[in-house]
Amino acid sequence: MEAREPQVVREAIMGLGEARDRAPRLEGVATGVEGLDELFFAIEFKEGRPHRKPLGGVPLGAVVNITGTPDTGKSLMAEQFAVRQAADGQKVCLVTVETPAAFVSTALEQRARAMGFDFSKIEKNIILLDAASYTRLREDMPTLLDTLAYIYRTYRVKRTIIDSVTGLYEAREMLARSVVRALYSFCKKWYQTALFISQKRSSHEELSAEAAGGYAVGHIVDCTMVLSKELILSERAAQIWKQEVGSIVRLFRIDGCRLCGHDTRIHLLEIDELGLVHIGPPLGDVRGRR
Ligand SMILES: Nc1ncnc2c1ncn2[C@@H]1O[C@H](COP(=O)(O)OP(=O)(O)OP(=O)(O)O)[C@@H](O)[C@H]1O
Ligand SMILES: [Mg+2]
């Protein structure tokens, strides 16, 4: 029998110092969602004692999964992030998987107006990739990644949004992890701060990433945020939530973030009449006040 030649992947081996030199700085990237940026923090030591220092956004270079059942505000949050980053002068790539690009442009224009930004100043900073209209981008991962690499090189993009990753493994859910893993590794290689939207079908475990249509997608990404809504249908629910029967209570939670400290409480979430998402106070504070 022929002896096997050893195969060593030398480029995967490095000293800790070398790895550290390649790491992004721990700083926040503003999301454009009121009440969200303050929920992430770093720990600083002053005279040997640890202190919380707010990051002012999601950690730079993080791949963040925003998950939730339908109509919970995921796309609105993604649009606010795109508008805010574009207004800050960043180039943003928004991969639209569900809604054709023309419709997304209308939504982004509405978000920009509601946030008080001049759309004509930010439109050149947002590059849309229409995977909703071009099946190949949804079904052939190497083509999607080649197209993204082309966009990153051409426009010098450092912010990526995919709405949604679930649409990239529709009817092939056993591939969910490998699809998300490929996108995660790709975003890391290109130093993207990224939002992956994923859809959650089950109403079980409402406020965890568990049962998110993405089969343990939460284990792959750096950070997960979960959105949910409660319909107040009975007198009992109305009493518990201190709301009228027939109303909706929207909730938000950061379900984990590997890269920095974060608030772990359940917060109220509001979508105002302009279609802007706001993260409200923690549920405990609201209940206690009443
Ligand atoms: N322009 C707007 N003005 C006011 N409210 C809006 C506006 N756009 C959306 N909404 C409200 O926000 C809700 C959430 O919308 P969004 O599109 O963000 O949901 P989603 O979580 O992305 O849902 P899906 O999983 O179906 O894509 C809508 O159902 C609607 O009630
Ligand atoms: Mg959506």
TrEMBL record:
Q: Which GO terms describe its molecular function?
A: ATP binding
Among InterPro entries, the record links this protein to:
Circadian_clock_KaiC-rel (IPR051347), KaiC-like_dom (IPR014774), KaiC_containing (IPR022373), KaiC_dom (IPR010624), P-loop_NTPase (IPR027417)
Q: Which domain of life is it from?
A: Bacteria
Q: Which CDD domains match?
A: KaiC-like
A UniProt-annotated Pfam family: ATPase
- PANTHER family associated with the record: CIRCADIAN CLOCK OSCILLATOR PROTEIN KAIC 1, PTHR42926
**Can you name this protein?**
KaiC domain-containing protein
Instruction: Name the species this protein comes from.
Output: Thermosulfuriphilus ammonigenes
